[in-house]
Amino acid sequence: MPLAGIALAPLLISHLAHAHHRPRSIVAAAAARRRPRAHRRARCSATATAASGDAAGDGELSRSTLLWRAAKLPIYSVALVPLTVGSACAYHQTGLFFGKRYFVLLAAAVLVITWLNLSNDVYDSDTGADKNKKESVVNIIGSRTVTQNAANISLLLGFVGLFWAFAEAGDARFILMVICAILCGYVYQCPPFRLSYRGLGEPLCFAAFGPLATTAFYFSNSSRNISSWADDHPDTLLQPFSSD
């Protein structure tokens, strides 16, 4: 019997050793499974911290930075491009360019677009669309009335420049097309229409700053000059980029 016990001792020790190590391997496997989850939680926590840091950074933006964002300077290219294209077409046909008229119209167009931007902020504030928009002019100034008055003054001054150009050009088509373009801007954002909320913003912007504005500025180079040129070149009136 002692010899049998001695012979079986290694087997018993081996069995106990396996039994002793098995829980550790189970624990190790469970810990390995938990590591990716912990890593994901840490990564999500870091992302949330970064996002909250960015939000805090936005909250610390200076008033001048917010005003710069609210100015939306790139949008004023829609005043420059139609005027330049229309004037270039008229110059190509007639050989005439009215520098003073060009710059007065450019200033008038910028004022009209300023009205669009300011009144858009006013009406978006009324509907609550800009409630949390920090670069909204209404939110920056803190007064809907002041913003609305500034918009109306900009539109009035813009009309002064447009009607001066109309008096110089003497072409009713110019002022009619300009008014149609401005009306597109009005129904885009102003009550009771607010067509931009109905998915019609892009077509209205295209009509206002595309064919209407470009053709209007083409006629702003004086109907008398264009008409007299057209009488001499009737076949090329509709070919402003012809090589003749």
Automatic annotation (TrEMBL):
CDD domains: PT_UbiA_UBIAD1. It is found in: Membrane. Pfam families: UbiA. GO terms for molecular function: prenyltransferase activity. Coiled coil: none annotated. Residues 1-19 form the signal peptide. The chain crosses the membrane at residues 73-90, 102-118, 150-167, 174-194, 200-219. InterPro entries: UbiA_prenyltransferase (IPR000537), UBIAD1 (IPR026046). Keywords: Membrane, Signal, Transferase, Transmembrane, Transmembrane helix. One of its GO terms (biological process) is phylloquinone biosynthetic process. It is a multi-pass membrane protein. GO terms for cellular component: membrane. This is 1,4-dihydroxy-2-naphthoate octaprenyltransferase. It comes from Oryza meyeriana var. granulata.
